[in-house]
Design goal:
Layout lengths: L1 H14 L7 H17 L5 E2 L1 H17 L12 H7 L7 E7 L4 H9 L2 H7 L6 E8 L15 E8 L2
Parallel strand pairs: 1-3
Antiparallel strand pairs: 2-4, 3-4
Length: about 160
């Protein structure tokens, strides 16, 4: 009886959401993995270092008022992942801004050829997702609305 309980507990923990990921990040991951499953790809596994990199870039875009795959300091998705301690040369990145929900950002990414390609690239095995909300956000230069929400998903294979 005790052994059966232990096996059930281990199985439940294997499918539990990472404790460091929030609801929005887990919702994005679920949608990404559902789309990957339809294509026959293995599900992505959340990685803490990639999530740190993704969250840091989302936060930087919000706080420094820019939107780009290139950081305000010239960083790239690869250099940010390496700085977070993740070592790989096979890295992709999706960025989004203004979408107030995981469903909205996922929908936008799937409608974009490059972002969709990252999501459905079966060679990727790990991911990190970060969302940063800035309630007092200012509109980016040339825009009339404040984005408030900044999203980043980093894809990699160790």
């Amino acid at each position: 009886m005790l052994r059966r309980f232990f096996l059930i507990l281990v199985a439940a923990l294997a499918f539990a959401a990472p404790v460091w990921a929030g609801d929005a990040e887990n919702q994005v991951l679920a949608q990404v993995n559902a789309a990957r499953a339809k294509k026959g790809c293995a599900p992505l596994v959340m990685d803490a270092k990639l999530s740190k990199s993704a969250y840091g870039h989302a936060k930087a875009m919000a706080e420094k008022n820019f939107f780009s795959h290139t950081g305000a300091n010239g960083s790239t998705s690869k250099s940010r992942a390496h700085a977070a301690g993740y070592k790989s040369n096979f890295i992709g990145e999706n960025v989004g801004m203004g979408q107030a929900s995981a469903a909205d950002v996922f929908s936008n990414w799937m409608a974009s050829k490059g972002h969709r390609a990252n999501i459905l690239d079966c060679r990727f095995s790990e991911t990190g997702i970060g969302v940063f909300y800035q309630p007092d956000d200012k509109p980016l230069p040339g825009r009339t609305y404040a984005a408030k929400y900044y999203w980043v998903e980093v894809f990699a294979r160790p």
